[in-house]
Request: fold
Amino acid sequence: MAPILALVNLSKRFGAIVVANNVSVDVPRGQALGIIGPNGAGKTTLFGMVTGAVTPDAGRVAFNGADVTRLSPAQRCRLGVARSFQVPQPFGGMSVFENLLVAARMGAGLGAGEADRLCVETLERCGLWDHANRKAGSLTLLQRKRLELGRALASKPKLLLLDEVAGGLTEEECKSLVALVRAVKDSGVTIVWIEHVVHALIAVVDRLVVLHGGALIADGDPAQVIHSPEVAEIYMGIPADV
Amino acid sequence: MSAQAAHIETATRASRIGVVAIALALAALAAAPFLTDGANLSLLAQIYAYLALATLWNLLAGFSGLVSVGQHAWVGLGGYGLFALTIFGGLHPFAAIPVAGAVAALAAVPVAGLLFRLRGSYFAIGSWVVAEVMRLAASQISALGGGSGTSLPVRVVASIAASRQEREFAVYWSALALVVAILALTIWLLRSRWGLSLRAIHNNELAAVSNGVEVARVRLFVYVLTAAGTAMIGALIFLQKLRISPDAAFSVNDWTAFVIFITVIGGVGRIEGPVVGVVVFFVLRQTLADLGTIYLMMLGLVAILVMLKAPQGVWGLVADKWGVEIVPLQRRVIYAKSAPGEPASARKEEPKP
Reply:
């Protein structure tokens, strides 16, 4: 069976800066893949190319066996690619419930009744049901991060891209978020997760890749990758805290 | 407590009372021809026209973020459409109104293709330029009187109704029907998936796109729809006036500035806004219009005061203070045995698994 996501020889440069240099990765169905790398390594740009927000200079993106390189972000979302943003991007003037409804109706393409049910379920799943009718703009950071995740889930994704959902949270908050991501993974959704909070990442992912200068420099079992000499060198001798 | 015990509601207590009040008001307004004289009817029909124009501009600018200052393009096109269709096409005036709307919808597609390349204030100025081009084009049509305009021929006027009074009644009722239809359509639209998409785009375009919203398609749809509605109102306005000229039909003052004034005073981005705004506008006009230029200065003053002191408009002020929504758009989740809006701290943070 074709991998759910296949990146084939992706390259992208912004002016003189190479942010993706011939990157190829296959993500099998149901896997949780972690991506780490220093700032500016090209992690978020890679997500951009998967969702369609960034057009690669060369290479192609295949989703579920079909080439989606030329599809718009909205089209890819409807096929089942959902993302959370590093800096939460709520529809600030709309209620939390309506934020989810956008994803359920436009992303998942559900009718009004089905969308209502899915969003009520998702609110509960993400611990946001208390805030259903509040304006999303009035949420705290943790709640916004939960909303990012909830909205992505409300589009019924087959592939979920998480961009630093654990950053800026307290230890307690981080723990409850990790539990949520693990539950999503257990429900069969494929996950690709960019994260600087490595211990949160390691607690969930099956596989870890390291991006540096737009190139893939390590790929494999999370415990092994995190202790590899390449990673130690990139992080300038700072031992990764696992 | 489980979230399964939740249901979804749009209506509020105020909106349930509102529905009854609106129904009673409509009944009274529909009976107005039998209760009042021709001058008042004509005034009411003008109010309806402005209410419809403001509602459409609100849909475009307030809900979709497409701030057009060139809506007089569509009023003028609708007016000229009516004259051309009845004089050259031999159409009955009431049949010409929807046809003029359809013509505007067709014309709006290439115009949107042009304007949507522009953003923000460039879009606004671009929309004005389009209206100017249309005004100049209209002044070149010599069969419709060129720059000085023309009157609706007697045979066309006579085809509306047998007597003057019946004609006034017919025009009044069609204005009422049209504004009710436009309001109802706008409310339905804003509660549908289109409205959800519009508000999502207006709130955060990046997030809208990555949640499956086809931004270009949604914007085109709303632009074409408002152009058609605006043109139909334009046709009706000039059917009432019985005379058209390029300067009157494509007047930025009458059909864009006043319309924006009404919406801003009432409350941008709220269905109730234009209704409140149109009342304020006509009260000011009826009481101050004799003062000439001072009237316009007063309008400007009111606009400046509202924008400084209550940027959410008169209705926005009321709605935010007392939490009233006569026409709610939000789908609210109501949990059993708990009051909506109860502070989160009053309940447990996590639901039981």
